[in-house]
Amino acid sequence: MASNIRIPKAELTGIKGALVKRMTRKMVGEVPDPLGVVWNNRKVTNFSFSVSHKVQKWDQCDENLKSFAHMAVASLVGCSFCLDFAYFQAHNQRLDLTKAREVPRWREADVFTPLERDVMEYAEAMSVTPPTVTDELSARLLETLGPAALVELTAFIALSNFMTRNNVAMGIESQEFSAACDLKPLPVASTA
């Protein structure tokens, strides 16, 4: 895929850079473009690593639901990198790939439960400007998930917006990670 990166990627140098290169190549086969771009500002890089590490410890909300929420945000915002990488991660975490494949067109797909549809609707409602989250939708999610999981889901969606919007603004596009694990191409996004 053609690259339209607006900020040049920095060379990952030094001991930390060598370690990060080795680790990311082992995990995903290459250094993800967003990492090369944010390496230009080590404080931002450290923040991103810190947040990612902490988010991985969250355990109150189902991983499939969080994955679907992130992909719904990526699809809505238009972050091909995030959508592709989330699909790759869903494959590696053994999440429901049949459903993950359909997230960009969740309104038309018949594979999702009412809860999964509510989660993707919530993710999109949080992601538009101004947000359009309704009391009814929040109440349904609260009743089904409980307070701890809904707080986690909300924070996760907010962070998904942070990542997707950063990548889109910086011109970062798909690196075709999902192709590396022999997955079918992602369908086009549905319109809200």
- Percent range of helical residues: 55-70%
Helix-strand pattern, N to C? HHHHHHHHHH
Number of helices: 10
Q: How confident overall, as mean pLDDT?
A: 91
CATH-assigned fold name of the largest domain: AhpD-like
Shape: globular
- Highest-level CATH class of the largest domain: Mainly Alpha
Strand content: under 5%
Structural class: mainly alpha
Under CATH, the homologous superfamily of the largest domain reads AhpD-like
Number of domains: 2
Which CATH architecture of the largest domain is right? Answer: Up-down Bundle
- Low-confidence blocks of residues: none
Q: Main sheet? A: none
Quote the distance from N terminus to C terminus. Answer: 26 Å
Number of distinct beta strands: 0
Which value, in Å, is the CA radius of gyration? Answer: 17 Å
List the helices and strands and how they pair.
Layout: H1 14-28, H2 33-38, H3 42-55, H4 63-77, H5 80-92, H6 97-102, H7 114-127, H8 135-145, H9 147-169, H10 177-180
Outline of the structure:
The protein has 192 residues and is mainly α. The chain has helices spanning 14-28, 33-38, 42-55, 63-77, 80-92, 97-102, 114-127, 135-145, 147-169, 177-180. It is globular and about 50 Å long.
Description:
By secondary structure, this protein is mainly α. It has 2 domains: 14-55, no CATH class; 63-180, Up-down Bundle (AhpD-like), CATH 1.20.1290. Helix content is 63%, strand content 0%. It has 10 helices and no strands. The radius of gyration is 17 Å and the shape is globular. The model has no long low-confidence stretch (mean pLDDT 91).
